[in-house]
Amino acid sequence: MDWITRSLIPSVLHLQIYNEKKSQFEIKRNNPKDLVERVARDISKLLNSKRKALEKLAKEAELLQKEHEWQDGVTENAISYYDSKADSDYAEDGEEENPLETSTSLELEFVDDPNFKNKVNYSSSAVQIPTDIYKGSPVILNELNWTQALERVFIDNRREDSSLRWQVFGSATGVTRYYPATPWRAPNKIDLYDVRRRPWYIQGASSPKDMVIIVDVSGSVSGLTLKLMKTSVIEMLDTLSDDDYVNVARFNEKADAVVPCFTTLVQANVRNKKIFKEAVMHMQAKGTTDYKSGFKFAFEQLLNESSAPRANCNKMIMMFTDGGEDRAQDIFEKYNWPNKTVRVFTFSVGQHNYDVTPLQWIACANKGYYFEIPSIGAIRINTQEYLDVLGRPMVLAGNKAKQVQWTNVYQDALGLGLVITGTMPVFNLTADTVSSQNQLILGVMGVDIAINEIKKKTPTYRLGANGYTFAIDPNGYVLLHPNLRPKIINFREPVTLDFLDAELEDNNKEEIRRQMIDGKSGQRKIKTLIKSVDERYIDEALRTYTWTPVEGTDYSLGLVLPTYSENHIKANLSDQILQVQLSYTKDFESLLPNSFESEGHVFIAPREYCNDLDLSNNNTEFLLNFIALMEKVTPDSKQCDNLLLHNLILDTGIIRQLVEKVWKNKDLNTYGFLAVFAATDGGVTRVFPNKASETWEEDPEPFNASYYRRSLDNKGYIFRAPYRTARDELLNPENDTIGILVSTAVEITVGGKTIKPAVVGVKLDLEAWTEKFKILASNHTDNRQGSNTCGPNRGCEMDCEANSDDLLCYLIDDGGFLIMSNQKEDWNKVGMFFSDVDAYLMHALYNNSFYNRKQSFDYQSVCERLPNSEAGAAPRGVFVPTIADFVNVAWWTSAAAWSLFQQFIYGLAYHSWFATDEVDAEGFDSKERSCVMIQTQYYLSNLSSSYNILQDCGNCSRLIHAKRINNTNLLFVVAEKISCNTCNIEKLSQEEEEFKEENPCEEMPVARYRKGPSTCFDNNISENTSDCGRGHSFRPCLYTLLLIQLLLLYPAISPNIHSLLH
Questions:
Q1: According to the model, what pLDDT value does residue 1047 have?
Q2: Are 769 and 836 contained in the same domain?
Q3: Is the same domain home to 422 and 552?
Q4: Residue 642 within a domain
Q5: pLDDT of 852
Q6: Together in a domain, 365 and 377
Q7: For a tag on the chain, would you pick the N or C end, based on fewer CB atoms within 10 A?
Q8: Residue 862 banded pLDDT, cuts 50, 70, 90
Q9: Nearest Cα to 564, choosing from 679, 682, 459, 715?
Q10: If you ran DSSP here, which 8-state letter would residue 817 be given?
């Protein structure tokens, strides 16, 4: 390896080149504390600038609604608005639109706006109304009427701040009005979007919740009613966010948790809700009903003095039942009266003839609300309206509750990407007929900020390839992090990547996370494990973490710097850029494509050097755009990022010197090299000779390239073969030229300051180097190990050159991937994980501590959607009665047949309820689903000497010699060519696979530290609880019910009638 250094990448020459150019740059210090505090101030200023618009919108909305006169006789034709769904095609091919719905929407023209990643109209707002809400109802029409005036406020806000993105009012009626107008992003199937179920609305409309859901599973709950209950509970869980805590129990004569290991309330995060949903779907009905058992379980969950984390705000019980006579008064007297700290909501599910008065009484006596869910069409609306009740104390608190809250990060439904939203509740200020003050929440006002806007406030390139900023919220979830890259767009699930999952977890990071959540500032230098960009390797490196809170929010900002990035180069090339415009300099000419043949191919990182520079994925096109711009730009143009632009020109000149002084004077074939290359922090990559660029597959952005980042973190030479798996087609060395990438960081010290501004390397020709490897390998055994060792001047049995037919000689990299072999039949396996080459040998190396391993999880993965086992069995959402149901008298007497008829009528209006195809969350048809992947990475231990291992496998044993090669990431392994394959060993694997949690109770993760919102509005002595729900389900007459029963029964008995007639 020293030979490569002296020949092609001499460090002395690098220092000489940088010294020659030192008048054109200076070494500037990155002060982590100053940097993180400045960025935190900039982010705080950005968020506070949106606060003004939000407060203005909320205030105007309340005044507009107060001044609005209710109109009973208003018609849809009298209201002028843009229906965002009017331009969307929901009908499938060959289907006609619903004739019951006629569009009265305005017709607008739209223009592309890259800021919104959408076509928009700035003169109008748009309205989105959920599919299951009748837009012609007086409530909706009056809502559309008064919110139309918000358009003026939207436009004024944008005039004052052109950087504003979506301004949205989410109404408690389900209507969404947003600005600027854009057509709704139509799904292929049914559109299930309802603003009241969006994370930002839920957070703005109520304080955090501690909820226990109890489900009646007595014998009377069967068939359709049981299915309605399960669906209702699942929909209820979807109204909860990560700020909430929940447990679910089933009850009959006794009560128990549906997930046995959830002995207390657990955070309502994506994982836990998924576990609950699966458990709920497996519930079975039997036994008799005892409300007391269910309520006793719920109260003990909510009121015990457990140290387990809680929301510690709204406490509530949600009871789903088909009815009963018991009022469980003694339970409420014992646990909840007189203070009534726990609200009780009751849900009567299905069609039945039970007296609902006890359920109404239970809700009214405990500050809750009574709802009825007679059919599937009533589930979504009735499982979310409890939020109106929870909003009462907030409305009564007045201005104390008018606080701007910033949400967790989530996917914008209109295509803006990852966003956070500032929210503020909007209260009804009209006088109530019962009390002097109204206690209804009108809705939530929201203003979006794209995460990309926040990223622009953070330093990027001055921190180097391995430096970065990140930010977390009080749940510990990241809203900024280089590893925050969700691969699937799912509007229903929030983006909840924990800081400890975005990185490889350790005790130091756990403490850093805790301090950040607590709003503290701090700094800590730690040695930590880092996963490579390509996720194949793990490196151990030093990092300095610095963090501080973002004022005015509950976010915290962190900055991570490697030691070598504590300084950075700042070029000052105003004169040189001016010379480029007057006449091409040699440095600049080396960027021109006509110079590539003589000086090597140039790749430029696609960075935003100037505002007018058109970015392109095609490097040649981007290079030409850059050259054209350089002929026009002034030396210190305000439209350009001077740090980026100047450093790029500086690095171009430095690499050209390397070409002139070294590369052009060498015959690469003599050394067995396919190419030499250099890449810099400034964004220039040059590959020599030009023809080598045809097979160059590395990222043109050095900061995204695995070889670049790993070379900075490791001393010496980093070898990497082209990655292959056992499933890939084998390479053919005779036809395919296999190149091994070898790279190392350039380290220079100028003025006492050390930096790593570049990475240089070569691409080895595998075939040419294998013969060299046999010779070199015989010199890499340790002469202190006894009779079986080999030295440079004497032969012995462990000599790769002398005994090539009897010995297996390998070079394996630090991730466990094959780099070289003395066996020609292994050449086509170069780049494979070594366990796929020799599973027994790899296991011996791991078992003898040459390799450590680390499991990591990817919570942002995408998997193929699993086949729906129920699809095609029946229309989705519809209960199909069985023979058992037909002969069951209870099924007929409970009027389930009438409920089935209701679903049929509902299906005529919303045909998609009957679709059998599986639909994504929010109705987007997708062949993919989000999933968790698990992967095991291997990395070399700190062993530095050479070792002999005797692999004993029953009647077979073989000697193995292994040694770490100094100044590289390689392990040299020699083994006797005896196949010891009778041992029962673990086949090691490095491939990623889906993590399937068969039994969530076997490995219960410890709840991570988090902090809930600092304010809570769960109680107000002025609250009027008299509005607590009334029964209003429509009861059919006896003759109608009998007729429907006969129609339903006919298909089941008609075959028998026909056979009797024949």
A1: 57
A2: no
A3: no
A4: yes
A5: 95
A6: yes
A7: C
A8: confident
A9: 715
A10: B
Q: Which stretch of 155-159, 724-728, 783-787, 865-869 has the lowest confidence by average pLDDT?
A: 783-787
Tokens matching residue 562? 């490697």
φ and ψ of 956, to 5 deg: -120, 135
Torsion of CA 933, 938, 942, 943, to 10 degrees: 160
The answer for residues whose C-beta is within 8 angstroms of residue 406's C-beta and 6 or more apart is 47, 420, 421, 422, 423, 473, 553, 554, 555
572 and 545 part of one domain:
no
> Closest by alpha carbon to 168, among 422, 447, 491?
447
Q: Which of 102-116, 813-827, 923-937 has the lowest mean pLDDT?
A: 923-937
Q: Are 774 and 803 spatial neighbours (Cβ–Cβ below 8 Å)? A: no
Cα–Cα–Cα angle for 698, 114, 110, rounded to 5 degrees: 145
Tally of domains in the chain: 5
Tokens at 744, concatenated: 């190392």
CA distance 979 to 91: 64
The CATH number that applies at residue 302 is: 3.40.50.410
Give the C-alpha separation, 282 to 121, whole Å: 49
Shared domain check, 246 and 212: yes
Instruction: Find the helix packing angle between 642-661 and 11-20, rounded to 10°.
Output: 130
Does residue 234 or residue 573 have the better pLDDT? 234
Cβ within 8 Å of residue 432, ≥6 positions away: 438, 439, 1024
Residue with tokens 């008048």, as numbered in its chain: 23
> Which is higher by pLDDT, 919 or 735?
735
Q: Are strands 405-406 and 418-427 parallel, antiparallel or unpaired?
A: antiparallel
Q: Are residues 583 and 675 in the same domain?
A: yes
Terminal-to-terminal C-alpha distance of the chain: 94
What average pLDDT does this structure show over 528-543?
Answer: 95
Same domain, residue pair 486 and 533: yes
Contact 840, 983 (CB under 8 A): yes
Burial label, 269 (beta-carbon count in 10 A; 0-12, 13-18, 19+): buried
Confidence band, pLDDT 50/70/90 cuts, at residue 251: very high
194-203 mean pLDDT: 90
Beta bridge partners of 480: 471
Tell me the residue range of the domain where 479 lies: 467-564
Does residue 1028 lie in a domain region? no
On whether both 112 and 228 belong to a single domain, the answer is no
Question: pLDDT, tens digit, for every residue of 115-127?
Answer: 998 999 999 999 9
CA distance 578 to 573: 9
Residue 705: per-residue pLDDT: 96
Q: What token pair was written down for 51? A: 């606060």
Which residues are CB-contacts of 950 (< 8 A; sequence separation ≥ 6)?
Answer: 957, 958, 959, 960
Give the model confidence (pLDDT) of 350-382 as tens digits: 988 888 999 999 999 999 999 999 999 899 999
Q: What backbone torsions phi and psi does residue 297 show, to the nearest 5 degrees? A: -60, -45
- Kindly compute the dihedral angle of the four CA atoms of residues 70, 76, 77, 81, in this order, to the nearest 10 degrees: 90
Per-residue confidence band for 885, with pLDDT thresholds at 50, 70 and 90: very low
Question: Strands 441-450 and 928-940: what pairing?
Answer: unpaired
3-state helix, strand, coil in the chain (%, to 5): 35, 25, 45
Residues in the chain: 1062
What is the DSSP track for 582-595? HS--HHHHTTSGGG
